[in-house]
Amino acid sequence: MAQPRNLAPHNSGDATAVIIVKAAPQRGERHGETVCTAAITTDKKWVRLYPIAFRTLDDAQKFKRWDIVTYKWRLPSDDKRPESRRLDHETLVVTGTYPKKSRFALVEPMIVDSLVAERAAGRSFAFIRPTIKSFHIEKKSPKEFAAEQANFDDYANQTNFFFKALKSYQACPYRFKYKYRIADGERTGTCQDWETEATFFLWSKQYGEEEALKRIQKRWGEEMPSKGLLFAMGTHSLHADTWLINGLVQMSEIGQLDFGF
After folding, report:
1. Chain segment 218-234, per-residue pLDDT in tens
2. How far apart are CA 73 and CA 251, in angstroms?
3. pTM metric for this prediction
4. Are residues 94 and 136 in the same domain?
5. Is the pLDDT at 184 greater than 60, yes or no?
6. Does 31 share its domain with 93?
7. Which of 122, 132, 99 is nearest to 226 (CA)?
8. What torsion, rounded to 10 degrees, do the Cα atoms 181, 186, 187, 192 define?
9. Is residue 16 domain-resident?
């Protein structure tokens, strides 16, 4: 197996990175409500920052994609993926926004053709430039949705008791799924980008749920793919060969007007 290029030479340190992925909140058994966060360091290495209880951060710490952040980290004992870093929340500082004119140079070296090859090389994060075959919206079963909401409610109650008031996160009743093709073949994955869920909730308030779903289908299924779309992919913590669509990056965000660069 090839040596992972992201393997850290030290067990802890200080770092600066550009935020790329902010996935929708998940309720886990070990770390409560967390947000899968990935960034690219200034020397072009992926890092997975966790556990981040994003909604408990101070307003000045609440980052978005392309924000530059500094932080202290150490290698986790419970996650052997080479990109993973345990973040010291108190040290997280947003220092600015990465300039649009420089984003393509940051992102382009991170784009790969084969997730199988990345996995074989010991890596667990990658950008892909897929051929998107379809996009569809799948409604969760009432039982699954109720269980997710109960988990979020439970976390909010715990947080309110021990720390500060935190409104329970609203579970999303839908999954947003892409079927796509890369060099490895055809795959299907759920889009976990927080922006997708957030837009669904915003448009539901503005237009009603049915119209919101139509708009999501058109925007995510037609408009964004037609203008060029990158997937930020990460492996599952418990299933090393399962790749998840953690984030979406439109070509226009990196100063590119079309899919072919």
Report:
1. 999 999 999 999 999 99
2. 31
3. 0.89
4. no
5. yes
6. yes
7. 132
8. 10
9. yes
